[in-house]
Write a structure and sequence with these properties.
By secondary structure, the chain is of the alpha/beta class. The protein has three domains: 2-11 and 198-287, 4-hydroxy-3-methylbut-2-enyl diphosphate reductase, catalytic domain (Cobalt-precorrin-4 Transmethylase, domain 1, 3-Layer(aba) Sandwich), CATH 3.40.1010; 13-104, 3-Layer(aba) Sandwich (Rossmann fold); 106-195, Cobalt-precorrin-4 Transmethylase, domain 1 (3-Layer(aba) Sandwich). Helices cover 41% and strands 17% of the residues. The chain is built from twelve helices and twelve strands. A four-stranded parallel beta sheet has the order 1-12-10-11, sandwiched between helices. Strands 3-2-4-5 form a four-stranded parallel beta sheet, with helices on both faces. Strand 8, helix 8 (172-185) and strand 9 form a beta-alpha-beta unit. Helix 9 packs parallel to helix 10 (224-236).
């Protein structure tokens, strides 16, 4: 049995920056209540590690960031790596909160593109409904239209001077299919693909895997970029693909009788968690002993 560690994997720079900001905020405001507006990044272990250093969070998938802000009444609010709308920022300031913006620079770049073009034309934004990155971006202007799949394109009104852009963590395969259909209806549309480099190279690494009979993706089910890695692997025809949050989720049946097992992870998954999975599988491959550890190893950075 061969265990292949897919490169790259683990934290992207946006996640590293968000975690560093959270740690610095805890040090800077030791006597104030600190609350993250949502999950700092989409990994529960990262969120739990933040709680251990005194940073709480509010999250409810049925509520918008604007609605969630009603649950924060004092102290410091940290906006997550997924980006935040100007409306939310203004409301937080009106409430007298100290605002720390951990928005990923790639997401902020997309926001600027959308706001600038919305002044001269309409924007079609390809993204996941209910995802905080999409929510923030479509709030940048009244003429930004969310498209989640090919069927949504038919429901769009007549638009002029159209710009097409997208959520940074989508599948590079899926987005091209949607863009091709948009171009049929809006042939003069300007296409600005904003899949971030961290997402792209991780997906390309999975696409380039050869002769793999099992791929294990390590990450949180809430993480869109993590789920996309799994879907791309399935579409590639890799016989068995699994999404696990930690080594404790591994089952012997997943890897039994496999010859080449690849391991990758989403860009919000702590490297320590992925390394523990790889180390366990390597030990199993060498010894044949299946003795899962008692706990998960987590190092924020």
């Amino acid at each position: 049995m061969e265990i292949i560690s897919v490169v790259p994997k683990g934290y992207c720079q946006g996640v590293v920056r968000a975690i560093q900001l959270a740690k610095e905020t805890a040090q800077q405001y030791p006597n104030k209540k600190i609350t993250i507006l949502g999950m700092l990044v989409h990994n529960q272990y990262v969120v739990d590690a933040c709680k251990e250093i005194g940073i709480d969070y509010v999250e409810d998938t049925k509520k918008s960031r604007l609605e969630l802000l009603d649950e924060i009444h004092e102290g410091v609010v940290i906006f997550t790596a997924h980006g935040v709308s100007d409306t939310v920022k203004e409301k937080a300031l009106q409430k007298g909160l100290i605002c720390i913006d951990a928005s990923c620079k790639d997401v902020v770049k997309t926001h600027d593109i959308v706001k600038n073009h919305a002044k001269i034309g309409d924007v079609i934004y390809i993204g996941k409904k209910g995802h905080p990155e999409s929510e923030a971006t479509v709030q940048m202007a009244n003429n930004v239209y969310l498209v989640t799949n090919e069927n949504d394109i038919d429901a769009l009104p007549n638009l002029h001077n159209v710009l097409v852009t997208n959520q940074t963590t989508l599948s590079i395969i899926d987005i091209q299919k949607i863009i091709e259909k948009i171009k049929i209806r809006f042939p003069n549309a300007i296409i600005q693909d904003e899949i971030c480099n961290a997402t792209r190279i991780r997906q390309e690494a999975v696409l380039n895997l050869k002769d793999i009979d099992c791929l294990i993706v390590v990450g949180d089910t809430k993480s869109n970029n993590t789920k996309q890695l799994l879907e791309i692997a399935k579409n590639q025809g890799i016989p068995d693909t699994y999404l696990i949050d930690t080594v404790l989720s591994l089952k012997k049946e997943m890897v039994k009788n496999k010859n080449r097992i690849a391991v990758t992870s989403g860009s919000s998954t702590p490297n320590s968690i992925t390394s523990q999975v790889i180390q366990f599988l390597e030990e199993y491959a060498n010894s044949g002993n299946w003795n899962l550890p008692d706990s998960v190893t987590i190092t924020l950075l």
